[in-house]
Amino acid sequence: KTSSARIEDDKFGVLLLDRSLEQALQVAEKIRGDIENSSVDIEGENVSFTVSIGVTPILEHSGEVDVLLEQAQTAMYVAKEQGRNQVTVYEEQEVDVSSYREQKKRTREDLETALATDRFVLRAQPIVQSAVDGSETTLHFELLLGLRNKDGTLSSPTDFITSAERYGFMSLVDRWVVREAFSWISGLMDAQKVVPHLAINLSGTSVTDDDFMDYLLEQISEFGVGTNRLCFEITETGTISNLVKAADFVRAFRNIGCKFSIDDFGTGLASHNYLRELPVDYVKIDGIFVTDIHNNRNDYAMARSINDLAHFLGQQTIAESVENDDIVEKLKEIGVDYLQGWGIAKPKVLSEVTEDLSSLEK
Fold first, then answer.
1. Measured between alpha carbons, how far is residue 296 from residues 118, 174, 299 in Å?
2. For residue 77, which of 58, 104, 59 has the smallest C-alpha distance?
3. Spatial distance between the Cα atoms of 242 and 286, rounded to a whole number of angstroms
């Protein structure tokens, strides 16, 4: 007897009854091989996949279901760490499993400490409209997460984010960002200052999490923020594992006035299909097609095709990683709607942005 189910996102479980460990490994290897040797046609593009599988036996002394699931998942992560596209047995990886558990525990502790001691800092970078008449506005910002170092300098929390994504803790980060952002917006409203349009990044884990959806609705209600000024950024790679649930999330918040953008567009597996399935307002052209667009014909052609496709579907475009005037000229030539990057404006901490907004009339 065999039962299977989706556990979460891109994780699936298979329960085999009355099978030996050797037989279970044969089944797992067949699943792995079948997936590796198959492909799916998506919008004329042949896409292939691989899978990492963790196996744990159910013995007389085995723990509860949650323990068994954790064991199988831990073995699966070990398979990923060892190169992916392989089958790993829980019992045979005692050292690696122990290391994985310790790293997971340490990651959560470090993350909670950083959140509690205000090591994380929000910065805002302008997203500037590229208008044919020359008029430009900087009342559209993206919030970027920074990490305060011991010497007081700010850096990108790349290692923190990588570990949080690996061990499933990104929702903790997203909740902190949302609450800090809404608190800042609330302060602007109380001081009767101009409230800009704000883009907030959300991980694929949060977008497909019902509890996070409830949390976000609660925060919107608690702080009384105007949803028409909120834009949530999601990545195609982060939500491709559960496109249906991601689309439901997007529709739910668009129905109350929020906007959405797809970040890093053009690098995923099913880009064209994504634009049709997700009802987003903005498409962000990935920086890998932007940084050398003034020198590379292929990058220029790719950026132009993404821009044309988005406009055909009624979506506006944002080019990221805009670093100099030559890039700006090419993007305006293509017809990109918004520009973002250090060549446009550097990110500032929120207190500095508040001062800048004070000089504007509401």
1. 42, 36, 5
2. 104
3. 21
- Integer CA distances (angstroms), 61 to 1, 3, 118, 177, in order: 22, 22, 44, 43
Distance CA 273, CA 292 (A): 26
Q: Which residues pair with 349 in a beta bridge?
A: 123
H helix and E strand count, the chain:
13, 17
Q: What is the mean pLDDT of the chain?
A: 86
pLDDT at 134: 46
State the sign of the Cα–Cα–Cα–Cα dihedral 166, 169, 173, 175.
positive
Per-residue burial over 192-214, b = 16 or more CB atoms within 10 Å of its CB, e = otherwise: ebebbbbbbbbbbbbbbbeebbe
Specify the length of the chain in residues.
Answer: 362
Q: Which two tokens mark 288?
A: 């890998």
What number is the average pLDDT over the span 250-268?
Answer: 88
The answer to whether residues 260 and 280 touch, using CB atoms and an 8 Å cutoff, is yes
